[in-house]
Amino acid sequence: MEAGGAITLVTTKLTAPTPPSRLAARSSLEATLDHAVSDNGIRVVLVSAPAGSGKSTLVAAWQQHRTDCAWLQADSADRDPARFWGHVVAALDAVAPGVEAATAAAIRGSGADAAAVIERLANGLSDAPPALLVIDDYHLIAHPAIDQAVERLIEMAPSTFTLVLCTRLDPSIRLARLRVRGQLAEIRADDLRFAPNEASVLLTQRGAAPSNTQIEALCERTEGWAAGLVLAGMSLAASDDGDAFVASFQGDDRLVVEYLTDEFLSGAADHDRDRLLQTSVLDRMCGPLVNAVCDTTDGTEWLNKTASTNQLVISLDRTGTWYRYHHLLGDLLRLEAKRTTDLTAIHGRAAIWHQLEGHSHAAVEHSIAAGDLTTAADLIYDEATELMNRGQLRTVRNQIDRLGPVADQHAGTMVVRGWISLLTGSVADAQTSLERARALEPNDDVAGLIVALATMAHIASGNVTRALDEVASASDPVESTQTMTLAGAHTWGGDFAKARPLLKRASEMAPREGNTFVEAVTPILSAIAHLESGDTQAAHRDATAALAVASTNGFDNLAQMALAHSIVARTIDDAEQAVASAKRGVDLARRSPEYVMFAYALASAGDVLSHHDDSRGADLLREARTIIDRCPDPGIAGRYLARVEARHQLAAPPSQMAGLVEELTDRELAVLRYLPAPMSQREIASELYVSLNTVKTHCKAIYRKLGVGDRKAAVQAARDINLL
Q1: pLDDT at 6
Q2: What is the pTM of this model?
């Protein structure tokens, strides 16, 4: 459950809505847009106005005659940065070929860190023809990190790229600075207001034939608000007294709500009204989905007919397959549906349809809305690996949080929560989730992931002994992540004979599963085993291979890649590249919550920098020592640091003798077996029913016979010769 994997796209989000068949001419605004995108000084066009102002219709109509315009329909799910940038580059690739290929790898590995994405996207746009990107409904994202990244894109992208943001609320980017620099063009609510000559098209839908006086009055009452005019025209067509209707119609939100409820819904045939309310729970809909939700057979025909007579039902593609309700209409339909309709079964049917179609995220959302939280939990567990492999940790965490107490009683979601906690640096929370999951009697699949997570958590907290205890209790691994994790425990424990078969197995399983993260990390563990065994050539080969896989799949910035850079630094002859690789390893390792990995990378960098007379090397070694001292059992990382400290005259050299200086007595062996445990000497004495002085005497003898100077070194030395 690590970052990586392919981005799953919602393709209908990448197509501009089809403009109405009868379109109100907005030539002056289209000229404003044309001027803005032709001016290389303009970087952003902001179309900001309240709901129903005609923003999307204006921009969609304007762009349909252009060949350089990409479109992204934003929604709240795009608050996940990995999802958002995945759709951005997919949209742009249609007008700037090659952008997606250049950027997708960084997106898969970036998670919430968009720096690599922006850099590659800006470079890709520099090599592409002029392009512009429309992001519609940008206000639905409302994510500070995405705002910051978008602002960075604005700064880094070439002058041939223009960003068009359609939004109800101004985004949290520094608009004032863009204005001062002459880089911002704006279309506001006042600009979008329909004048009487423009409004006539909106008011003459469905047979209405208002007089010029009525048009002027309705424009005044609605303040030129597009949705209000559309709704007024629909009502006017059904009115027997046009003048009386115009005189009483108001365009504020409260009265528009009343209109939709009292006129639009009540005037619809019963079967249409029911279907409108039932389908209001859908973010997007197609004919088969409507049939599944409403238990009908004519969903496609109904959608096409409804869209052709109602501008508030918006086509999402050019084939008439997918539609959505205008946001305002959708909100109002949902309010009415909650008041009059039992939506539980409707959400349940929507969940089943999406699940069968492989739309896991939508299936989870509808299951939660239906109150079927157990099914939602099962689905979250099933989809978690895919989403987390794409870096969408926020999405998964949000889904689990919404399960409430049910999540605490579901072993699968507890394991997922534990992985998220570990990946975001909260080892204590990961341990809590593990304990809860274990208490729930998980099935074999979940149990395997529990062992893998527990192993990783113990290594992260610097306790290789506990990690190996977990491995000893593990069943035969059946997937690559668990296999690699078990191999990692043996690697950090110095038992390379046990690690290597598992590493080979993980490297064979990962390509079959499409798990590119395991493909990238497994060679790193193999490289450590080679390096610690004295085969620097094989270590360099494996570390270089790991970095190549990481680069291809967007894992360049993952903390786990720190070790690959560290090993390259120690196995390359070029001094400049060795120092650069060592520093890169430290930078990445600082992102990790894992003590053992962090300490090993610091020790490696300190070793290389000290070897090349860089004064920062000693500081890194001292920092590594503080990490090792906090570890109950750092495994081979502690042994390596001791060697490096001695090599650079920061500590006395450890014993170079292999094996025992002298055989341990039975009582010394009994004490030795307690040394990996987090127990004081007094506690060990109590367990063995001997005095504290007796344990101290035995420990001194153990250290002397193993040729080491402290307890942690004794544990690893004993492990090396199979005494532990």
Answers
A1: 45
A2: 0.69
